[in-house]
Design goal:
The chain is mostly helical. It contains 13 helices and no strands. The longest helix is centred in the C-terminal third of the chain and has 31 residues.
């Protein structure tokens, strides 16, 4: 094993508190899912449980695994964290329809005395209506992505543990907001013009493409902090930056393209609906005298 990687792994400490939080979150979801399954086995299929567990595991990989030991030495590793938190894990979390299992998995006393009154507060409901708007979700994601990649903010997050945590939390929050109008989990209101989601996804690629192209083709190191750190993978800081930009462009393009294909397939009429329309047309033709 290369010495830099060995040193990084030796400096990593298993995050007991964070891991227990993730395990407890998974247990609450599973408890609620089992309760719902006992009343209606088809309400939340098992694949959604797998989606939640995979999404939760990817968040842990980003912030709690040995991967986190190298984010201060490699921009590529830092980019992997951002992509997991903002692009990959959030849609998996929303595909699991987590809100209903959590409402049935948490203790009833907690729901009735604490969570219920908080969720019924008018200001929170107003914020929820605004936060669920696609334009707000798009702007929040774009602002978070661009804002944290400004060199001053990026360096601050690397040099301060508190700001580093805030950076990761904001990426995850922005990712959840961004994917909300795309996945439309319960209790979100369905978008009336579903085709607008394709435009939403296309526009979302623009800030990602600009940033990734800038990182990949810039002839200087954008974040000087990486010039003074040891390189665990034997590449220069500029090569590391180019790799991070290419990784961002590739990952975002593939994930958004998959999402766009799924949405487009939903918009296509199914075979059964086509057959129904043909049957209705034939029935109408037979009902008109002199036809047939």
């Amino acid at each position: 094993m290369p010495p830099f990687i060995q040193v990084g792994l030796e400096s990593w400490e298993f995050p007991i508190g964070l891991t227990l939080t993730f395990v407890l979150t998974a247990l609450v979801y599973l408890r609620g899912w089992l309760r719902l399954r006992s009343s209606d086995p088809n309400l939340i299929p098992a694949w959604r449980v797998g989606s939640f567990l995979v999404g939760l595991s990817l968040i842990w990989v980003a912030v709690g695994s040995p991967l986190a030991a190298f984010d201060e030495a490699s921009l590529t590793v830092h980019m992997i964290q951002h992509l997991l938190l903002m692009t990959v894990a959030p849609p998996l979390i929303w595909l699991s329809a987590p809100l209903m299992p959590f409402l049935h998995g948490l203790p009833k006393a907690f729901i009735q005395r604490i969570l219920g009154p908080v969720l019924r507060r008018p200001e929170l409901q107003r914020f929820g209506r605004v936060a669920g708007q696609p334009a707000y979700c798009w702007f929040a994601a774009a602002a978070t992505l661009v804002g944290w990649h400004v060199p001053a903010a990026f360096t601050l997050a690397l040099q301060s543990e508190a700001w580093h945590i805030a950076e990761h939390a904001s990426f995850l929050t922005a990712g959840l907001l961004f994917w909300w109008p795309i996945v439309q989990p319960w209790p979100s209101a369905p978008v009336s013009l579903r085709w607008s989601t394709l435009i939403y996804l296309f526009l979302a690629t623009l800030p990602c493409d600009i940033l990734s192209a800038f990182l990949a083709f810039c002839d200087r190191v954008v974040y000087p902090v990486y010039l003074s750190t040891a390189k665990p993978f034997g590449i220069s800081a500029l090569e590391d930056q180019e790799c991070a930009g290419a990784l961002m462009w590739t990952c975002v393009t593939i994930v958004y393209m998959v999402a766009a294909v799924i949405v487009a397939m939903e918009l296509l009429p199914t075979r059964s609906s086509k057959e129904n329309r043909l049957m209705q047309t034939d029935s109408s033709a037979e009902a008109v005298p002199g036809t047939g």
